[in-house]
Amino acid sequence: MSSYEESESKFWRKAKENPFVPVGMAGFVAIVGYRLMKMKSRGDTKMSVHLIHMRVAAQGFVVGAMTVGVLFSMYRDYFAKPIEQEQKATQPK
Q1: Which residue spans traverse the membrane (predicted)?
Q2: Alpha helix stretches (DSSP H) within 1-93
């Protein structure tokens, strides 16, 4: 097995464990791509201001995706698992 296959399978394994990481990465790329395409029609806006807005929007999306991912993990660990464990404990053997 080559190192490329190992890293690819590692990426998919990590993506299954935490699905909001690929969502954050895709959103980042989409926002940056959109803002780069809009760069032609920025009007009187300075280049530095346009790039700062692009960076803030992309970072905001990634932080939002990370926050949702952490909340999802907390829900899964502290609410979903205890309910499953409680149901298993109350089932007759």
Answers
A1: 20-36, 56-75
A2: 3-17, 20-37, 47-75, 81-90
